[in-house]
Amino acid sequence: MKKVVAILFLLNLSLFAYKYNEFLIKTQAALLPKIMLLDKKFANKTVDSKVKIAIIFNENDINTAFLLKTFITNYYGSDFENYMLVIKLKKVEDFLNSKEKYSAIYLLKLSEDNYQKIYKKIKNSNIYSFVYDKDDLKYGFLFSIDLEEKPIIFMNKKAINKNFDFIEQLYTLVRLIDNV
């Protein structure tokens, strides 16, 4: 009986989970840390000499969050540009209630309310912010990566502040979005 209940629970979760593109997740995992290196102030964003990334997700998307973490770990291991790479999976509420510091956050699909709460928490910080879906840059986050004929990096022009000093070459690689 317990097995039947567990199976029904897992099936129920998958019914409400967002449908992610696994190839896009893999592409984002490969590019996300590299984008951070294009900031001249990258070293200032480490936490205790570590590059700490929080993957923020809804409970229904735990498997996708774990998949992203696995892809990043497979690409980079635990060492990234002479820093220890630490990736944490955080449910939305856990992230919002935590005082833990991060170098970057990556947000899977969330509700508008949750995007707004997270943005409010990080807006005056020097955290790199990435969203799965480029349409969610409108909530104030910095980067998204999408696939067209090739991977396209989208950068929210309004999210760039004095805490970031990207090398000029980045601006030739990205599509600046300023009407979100």
Task: Characterize this entry briefly.
By secondary structure, the chain is α/β, with parallel strands linked by helices. Helix content is 38%, strand content 23%. The chain is built from six helices and eight strands; from the N terminus they run ααβαββαβαβββαβ.
- Taken as a percent bin, the fraction of beta residues is 15-25%
- Number of E-state strands: 8
Q: How many distinct folded domains?
A: 1
Query: CATH homologous superfamily name?
Result: Response regulator
As a percent range, the share of helical residues equals 25-40%
Q: Give the CATH level 1 class.
A: Alpha Beta
SSE pattern, N- to C-terminal: HHEHEEHEHEEEHE
* Widest sheet, order of strands: 2-3-1-4-5-6-7-8
What form results from the Cα inertia axes? globular
Distance from N terminus to C terminus (CA atoms, Å) equals 50 Å
Supply the CATH architecture. 3-Layer(aba) Sandwich
Unreliable stretches, pLDDT < 50, 5 or more residues? 4-15
CATH topology: Rossmann fold
Q: Which structural category fits the helices and strands?
A: alpha/beta
Number of helices: 6
The profile of the biggest β sheet is:
8 strands, mixed
The overall pLDDT, averaged over residues, is 90
Radius of gyration: 16 Å
